[in-house]
Amino acid sequence: MEIIIVMKNIATAVLIFLATFFSAGAQESDFSNIESHIKSHAESMADACVSIKAENGAWGSGVIVSRTGMIFSAAHVYGRLGETVTVFFNEGVTVSATVVKYDKEHDIAVLKLARNLPVVPAKVERGDRIENGKTLIAAGHASGFNAERRSPLRVGFGFLAQRRGMIYTTCRITAGDSGGPLYDEAGILRGVHHTMDVKGKFSAHVPVQRFFQLWPELAKMVATV
Q1: How many Å apart are CA 215 and CA 213, to the nearest integer?
Q2: 3-class DSSP state for residue 50?
């Protein structure tokens, strides 16, 4: 099952249920519960997601994780440590940011806004407690920033592949979404987008705990739940 939330107007967010049931035992009440959970966190999930334009003109996404303007994203969007980029917020506000941490092997990067803004960061969970088949929500700015819409939310199912160190989901992502947030039903950040397979069936996401494993000092800068 895949659910798409069109976010042109958060107050009237429309859930469109596509495809079939994830399991034969799924009931209408299950979908109602999922819808209720997602709606209650939709605005905060979209608002924490930003669009980012790299020095070379490439588009990516990121997620605000601290009130001081720290952003988690994907390394492949950027060319180097210290790169200066432009960050676009849903309201159209733009501000420059710097890539302050960069790990190409694990495809993760941390950016810092150049000036303070009244941001509301995502809720961050340091653990990796993701049950197989759980509902997960992907946010991102596909094809770059678009002033006509907020960050769309795409909903699917996923699981954590421990041996590969990746979360795999049925959430569709595309160019411009890389580095955007992957949430659970409670609106808690679980990972950032890495890539989609060539057939477009599954997406891969780097678990958020990878940031803390590589850079333990982030635990003092990011408010975790």
Answers
A1: 6
A2: strand
CB of 80 within 8 A of CB of 102? yes
d(CA 126, CA 1) in angstroms, rounded, equals 27
**Whether residue 130 sits in one domain with residue 35:** yes
Residue type, 158: G
Q: What is the DSSP string of 137-180?
A: EEE--TTS--TTS---EEEEEEEEETTTTEEEES----TT-TT-
Q: How far apart are CA 194 and CA 61, in angstroms?
A: 11
- The candidate with the shortest Cα–Cα distance to 53, out of 138, 145, 132, 120, is 145
Q: How far from chain centre, in Å, is Cα 59?
A: 14
Residue type, 188: I
H-helix or E-strand spanning residue 121 = none
Q: Would residue 69 count as lying in a domain?
A: yes
**Length of the chain measured in residues:** 225
Bridging pattern class, strands 134-139 and 153-161: antiparallel
Q: What is the pTM of this model?
A: 0.84
Q: Which domain holds residue 103?
A: 49-121
In total, how many domains does the chain have?
A: 2
Separation CA 132–CA 167 (nearest Å): 10
Mean pLDDT score across all residues of the chain: 85
Q: Is 113 within a domain?
A: yes
Amino acid at 145: F
| Tokens describing residue 42 | 């939709």
What residue has token string 């790169």?
83
pLDDT digits (tens, 9 = 90+) for 37-90: 788 889 999 999 999 999 999 999 999 999 999 999 999 999 999 999 999 998
